[in-house]
Amino acid sequence: MRCQEFREMTDSYLSDELLVETNHEVLRHLENCAACRSEFAARRELRARVRSAVKNSPETQINSAFAARLQTNLRAAALERPTVWEKIKVAEFFNPKVLAFAASLLVVALVGAIWLSRSLSNETTIAENNQSNRAGEILQVPIGTVMSRLHRGRKLLRQQLTEYARSFGIAADG
Ligand SMILES: [Zn+2]
User: Fold this and answer.
1) For the chain, how are helix, strand and coil distributed in percent, rounded to 5?
2) What is the pTM of this model?
């Protein structure tokens, strides 16, 4: 595994989303590459700090106009092709568990937007370990399905959040 690949997988690794085999490759690279080891530590620390900062501060809550636009776009995308959002019907979307899960997705995806702004990575992130398992329980679909849908949802969130970050001048263009 090369450093570039490692960097692209860091968030997935931290979110416990990788296959066992890929996990091993990541760990092997970590063992042998001091540069990636220190970036990895910094990233993990940043994730934790941003998450708690966003959670604890009212002024960092996502504004309602953006949230509404995001929701509309996600729904539109869900109608085009099957995604994680497909199973979340309108009524279910207001289920507190599902909302909490969606909120945690957004919060941690913000970490990705910040990383984007630093041009260190173009990957957004998903919440804590076992989040996928919980989502699987809530949506009653297999873990593999949750993970592939999360991947799609994350790509979409990345686009949306990059746009949002740009509107605040905190992400580079292009
Ligand atoms: Zn490396």
Assistant:
1) 75, 0, 25
2) 0.38
The single-letter code of the amino acid at 164 is Y
Cα(17) to centroid(ligand 1), Å:
20
Percentage of the chain lying above the pLDDT 90 cut: 12
119 CA distance to ligand 1 centroid (A)? Answer: 17
Radius of gyration for the alpha carbons in the chain, expressed in angstroms and rounded? 16
pLDDT one-digit tens code per residue, 93-123: 556 666 666 666 776 776 666 655 554 333 3
Supply the DSSP symbol for 60.
G
Residues with beta carbon < 5 A to ion ligand 1? Answer: 3, 33, 36
Question: What's at 160, amino acid-wise?
Answer: Q
Within 13 Å, how many C-alpha atoms sit on residue 90's CB side?
3
- Average pLDDT score, the chain: 73
The DSSP code sequence of 38-62 is HHHHHHHHHHHHHHHHHHH-GGGSP
Distance from the CA of 28 to the center of ligand 1, in angstroms?
A: 10
Q: What is the mean pLDDT of residues 4-14?
A: 87
Cβ distance 138 to 86 under 8 Å? Answer: no
Task: State in Å: Cα 27 to ligand 1 middle.
Answer: 11
- Cα distances from 34 to residues 12, 28, 38, 53, 138, in angstroms, run 20, 12, 6, 28, 39
